[in-house]
Every structure is written in structure tokens, then in C-alpha cells.
Amino acid sequence: MYIGAGILLLLIGLVIVFAYNGDMSIAGLDIGAIGWIAIVLGVLAIILSLILDRRRRETIVRDDRRY
């Protein structure tokens, strides 16, 4: 579920950091820093989604057969 949001944040951050050539400061905010923050958050979202997905796949099988 979070893997799509993570990929989106990662792509937005990469575009901001590596492809944006305009003024890197808008209203006192450093756009380059915002791009790096988006990259880090995207990677964390992807890693957390993989960890949580692995946790959900573990199943417990009980054998309730009575003879």
C-alpha cells in the first residue's frame, strides 16, 4: 500500500534535486533540501511497506483434527 506513495515521493525528490534548474529558494525554503527530504521519506516508505508486507504473509497453521 505504501510502496506506491514511496515511489512517488522518491521520484518527486529525484526530479527536484537533479532536474530542477530554477531558483532553489522559494519564500525562504530551500527546494534542494525539500527534494532530499522527499527522497529519504520515499525510501523509508518503501522499506517499511516491504517489512509490513512480510509480517502479514506469515501465517500460523493449526491442526484441529480430532480422532
TrEMBL record:
A Pfam family recorded for this sequence: DUF6458
Name this protein carries in UniProt: DUF6458 domain-containing protein
Record domain DUF6458: where: 2-59
Transmembrane feature ranges: 29-52
Record organism: Janibacter limosus
Superkingdom of origin: Bacteria
Keywords, alphabetical: Membrane, Transmembrane, Transmembrane helix
Biological classification of the source: Bacteria, Bacillati, Actinomycetota, Actinomycetes, Micrococcales
Alphabetical list of InterPro entries matching this protein: DUF6458
